[in-house]
Write a structure and sequence with these properties.
Elements: H1 2-9, H2 13-26, H3 30-54, H4 60-83, H5 85-92, H6 98-116, H7 121-140, H8 146-158
Helix pairs in contact: 3-4, 4-5, 4-6, 4-7, 6-7
Length: about 160
């Protein structure tokens, strides 16, 4: 009867033990996480730089938009190795960075749509600029008071 009560209340120890075993067997060591973070981040930076170099070729705007977007996605995905994908997603969609996350993800999608479906090079460049700004704003959300400092600096420059 006690086991039935635990199962119905969601406190089953056997299920919790199985979940813990699965998570423990699939977790990476700290050094492995750092190595894969560095590999993924460097690949992202290389893609972004490669895209910038391809900008001046014929059809370079398309290549730039694609490589720049893939580079940003790889750089963003690299942090999943440091904190894990679920924790990364939870932090991305916290209320403090929800707007920046949604804007950043929309810019990724709209950049690729502008290149592949709409065939608008100028729009793709605009979305790449918005990607940069939204990624910057998103990254600043992890630094305490950084957004406030940027807002104060910009407001003092404009006034």
């Amino acid at each position: 009867m006690d086991k039935l009560r635990r199962v119905l209340s969601g406190q089953d120890d056997e299920e919790q033990g199985l979940t813990t075993q699965v998570l423990d067997s699939s977790s990476l060591s700290y050094s492995t996480r750092l190595k894969w973070f560095a590999i993924c981040f460097v690949c992202g930076v290389v893609c972004s730089i490669l895209g910038t170099g391809l900008l001046f070729l014929p059809q370079g705007t398309k290549l730039f938009a694609v490589f720049y977007t893939l580079g940003n996605i790889a750089a963003l995905a690299s942090t999943c190795f440091l904190m894990g994908p679920m924790k990364q997603l939870k932090k991305m969609f916290e209320t403090t960075r929800l707007l920046a996350t949604v804007l950043m993800l929309l810019c990724f999608v709209f950049t690729l749509c502008a290149v592949f479906w709409w065939h608008k090079k100028g729009l793709a460049l605009l979305f790449c600029i918005l990607q940069f700004l939204s990624m910057t704003w998103y990254s600043l959300s992890y630094i305490p008071y950084a957004r406030d400092a940027v807002i104060k600096c910009c407001s003092s420059l404009l006034s």
